[in-house]
Design goal:
about 120 residues, mainly beta, 3-stranded antiparallel beta sheet, globular, disordered C terminus
Length: about 120
């Protein structure tokens, strides 16, 4: 895993998300109303909807495709349905968001695998 700076907290509005492109699956980065930052793989576990385009409420996001509610802390679907998306470790240092991404999601990993 490698810590990568992806932007500043103040670049994401409260109760919204942003998509971070990687070599692997995209990552949804979210800012809760209390300024907590969360990151999950950007695919809803139900039908693969782009979670970063969903509605953030509390520490959850509602998928824009089928209204599945996913916990940003655990990645699990809330309510009677089951499923989960992976969470990504987040660290905020001096207002800058860092994600701890696995090597296979980094550009250099793709280049080394192709060689």
């Amino acid at each position: 895993m490698t810590w990568i700076a992806i932007g500043r907290v103040d670049e994401i509005l409260p109760l919204s998300g942003r998509c971070v492109k990687t070599v692997g699956p995209d990552v949804g980065v979210f800012r809760a109303a209390d300024d907590q930052i969360f990151a999950v793989i950007n695919n809803c576990p139900h039908k693969g909807g782009p979670l970063s385009e969903g509605i953030v409420h509390g520490t959850s996001v509602t998928c824009p495709l089928h209204n599945m509610v996913i916990s940003l802390a655990s990645g699990e679907i809330e309510g009677p349905d089951e499923g989960r998306t992976d969470t990504i470790p987040v660290d905020v240092r001096a207002g800058v968001i860092h994600l701890d991404l696995p090597a296979e999601m980094l550009p250099s990993a793709k280049a080394s695998r192709a060689a």
